[in-house]
Specification:
The protein is 11% helix and 40% strand. The chain is mainly beta and 65 residues long. It has one domain. A five-stranded antiparallel β-sheet has the order 4-3-2-1-5, covered by helices on one side. The chain starts with 7 loop residues before the first strand and ends in a 5-residue tail after the last strand.
Length: 65
C-alpha cells in the first residue's frame, strides 16, 4: 500500500476513546512501523506495518499540487 505522512487512515475498528472520529488516524511516521495519532483524542500509537495495512478500510489524502 502507498501510505504517506499526513494521510488520514480510516480503520476497521475504532480507538477505545469513543469519539466520533475514533476510526480516523493521522499518519506521523512511515516505515516498518507506523506512528499514527487518533483524530478524536490525540493519542499516538506505534503499530507494525503488516497489522496496520490489514486493518485499513480507506486512505484519505489531500490532493497534491
Amino acid at each position: 500500500m502507498d501510505i504517506k505522512v499526513n494521510d488520514i487512515l480510516e480503520m476497521k475498528k475504532p480507538h477505545p476513546c469513543g469519539n466520533t472520529d475514533a476510526k480516523k488516524f493521522l499518519v506521523l511516521r512511515v516505515g516498518m512501523d507506523f506512528r499514527i495519532r487518533c483524530i478524536g483524542c490525540g493519542h499516538e500509537i506505534m503499530i507494525p506495518r503488516v497489522k496496520a495495512e490489514k486493518n485499513i478500510r480507506k486512505v484519505i489524502r489531500e490532493k497534491e499540487n
